[in-house]
Design goal:
This protein has four domains: 4-60, Arc Repressor Mutant, subunit A, CATH 1.10.10; 66-184, Udp-n-acetylmuramoylalanyl-d-glutamate--2,6- Diaminopimelate Ligase, Chain: A, domain 1, CATH 3.40.1390; 192-308, CBS-domain (Roll); 319-437, Roll (Thiol Ester Dehydrase, Chain A). It contains 16 helices and 24 strands. The protein has helices spanning 4-13, 23-30, 34-47, 74-80, 106-112, 125-133, 148-157, 168-187, 191-194, 210-220, 240-243, 252-255, 269-279, 299-309, 319-326, 357-373; strands spanning 20-21, 50-53, 57-60, 72-73, 84-87, 95-96, 98-101, 117-121, 137-140, 161-163, 196-197, 204-205, 225-228, 234-238, 257-258, 263-264, 283-287, 293-298, 328-332, 338-343, 378-390, 398-408, 412-421, 424-437. The two termini are 42 Å apart.
Length: 439
């Protein structure tokens, strides 16, 4: 049976898109305390089907699909630009497909404005009116208000009219930045993208006997299964090691490993790989926020995903992408002897205009990764990095990076990295890492 918290989440999820939600309303509808209702609303907001807007309140919004992540709802725009909703509140859940900057004559502006657009414009009443009639929402810059008849039209059309104190250029930059950040998030593979879902997952219950494990083993040839209680909450993991020498009638909950490590669907695959390598785990259960089983993820799933991700085109460029794209092989002598060059761009510097500490660690990590690939194919997980020193390096300098493999084994590597600027040693580090095979 679902807990009260889960029942409230299901109730909120079932509300119509665009409906306003309040703590008092939820508490009354579900006969719970306001504290319980507040916690459920906050979780619904984290899950992405509720949005809270200052001076407007909390509304039910459409849960964003992953392939549509580069689009924003008008509710999100209000939060991005710290805006005030003047009219059309019931349309805040809608998604904008394009924004148009109204810095041209009215006729030209209307040629570019279509349904589903957001027109960013100053206090031009006629433009507000025409945009709404075309099916576009309006964002008024400069902190201006709009006419009463425009507000009424916005309410009728269910299209928001938003006012912000920022200028047009700043607003466009802020919205672009939000879309860009979402595109970067889109690239990051999460556990929920690759897990084996619950309806395809084989699991045992705490009330099952060892004989049930043998049945599943015969059927699937797998040897590891999550163990759940009657509410589908994860209680343990059972493996072939636990089963060895046990009677067929022994209860699973007596021999399972209790309180196993688990991951959430929103955890990144890279982080999960690190955990699995570090702890020597082959299979991890995937749970929701209430610790209910949602599926499983295996080490093989993780490695396939990491390999696929390296072949994907980059959509949003992170600082790591900038650094790795700048690094070029200038000299490759023999196995394990390589020299790289890297130009220090303005994005790679700190507020003083010299190379930042974080960028230097990325350069060291990337150089170690590349040289270890000449020994064996695979990815690495950094175990320990020691930076002996880093001298100031100004922007537009060209660095020479020389990684040297000190030791390499089947599952570990030790690399020394020296960084030169105009033949002067400016940085030195040593990195220990664990290696992930791609078998």
């Amino acid at each position: 049976m679902a807990t009260k918290h889960e029942q409230i989440l299901q109730y909120i999820d079932g509300l119509p898109i665009g409906e306003k939600i309040s703590v008092r309303q939820i508490a009354k509808a579900m006969t719970v305390s306001e504290g319980t209702a507040y916690r459920a609303i906050k979780e619904a907001e984290n899950k992405g089907y509720v949005s809270t807007i200052e001076r407007v309140g909390t509304i039910r919004i459409e849960r964003k699909k992953k392939e549509n992540i580069e689009k924003l709802t008008f509710a999100e725009v209000v939060n991005i630009v710290d805006g005030q909703v003047l009219g059309g509140r019931t349309g805040l859940h809608k998604t904008l497909n394009k924004f148009v900057i109204g810095a041209m004559k009215l006729e030209a502006m209307m040629r570019y404005t279509e349904a589903g657009n957001l027109l960013i414009v100053g206090n031009r009443t006629q433009a507000h009116e025409l945009a709404l009639k075309e099916g576009a929402a309006v964002l008024i810059t400069g902190g201006f208000d709009c006419e009463e008849h425009v507000k009424k039209l916005a309410d009728t059309m269910e299209l928001p009219v938003i006012s912000t104190s920022y200028d047009t250029f700043t607003v466009a930059t802020m919205i672009n930045r939000a879309i860009y950040d979402q595109l970067i998030k889109k690239e990051i593979i999460l556990v929920e993208d690759i897990l084996t879902p619950l309806d395809e997952t084989y699991y045992l219950k705490t009330s099952d006997k060892v004989s049930k494990w043998h049945e599943l083993n015969q059927k699937t040839t797998h040897s590891r299964y999550p163990v759940v209680d009657q509410n589908m909450k994860i209680q343990g993991m059972v493996t072939s090691k636990d089963i060895l020498g046990q009677e067929l009638e022994t209860s699973i909950d007596k021999i399972m490993t209790k309180n196993p490590m688990a991951v959430n669907g929103k955890t990144s695959v890279a982080s999960t790989a690190h955990t699995m390598v570090w702890e020597g785990i082959e299979v991890l259960p995937v749970t929701d926020d209430s610790n209910r089983l949602e599926g499983i993820i295996s080490r093989q799933d993780v490695l396939k995903a990491l390999q696929m991700n390296q072949r994907q085109p980059q959509v949003g460029e992170t600082i790591d992408d900038i650094i790795t794209n700048q690094m070029a092989l200038v000299q490759g002598k023999a196995k394990g002897e390589e020299v790289y060059s890297c130009e220090v761009t303005p994005q790679m510097t700190n507020h003083l205009g010299t190379i930042s500490y974080g960028v230097f660690t990325t350069i060291v990590s990337e150089a170690a990764n590349r040289i270890l690939r000449s020994y064996k194919k695979g990815d690495l997980v950094v175990e320990n990095m020691t930076i002996y020193f880093l001298k100031p390096v100004q922007m537009e300098s060209t660095l020479e990076i020389i990684p040297k493999v000190l030791e390499v084994g089947r599952k570990f590597g030790k690399v020394d990295v020296e960084v030169f600027n105009e033949s002067v040693l400016v940085g030195k580090a040593m990195m220990m890492c664990q290696l992930i095979d791609r078998n």
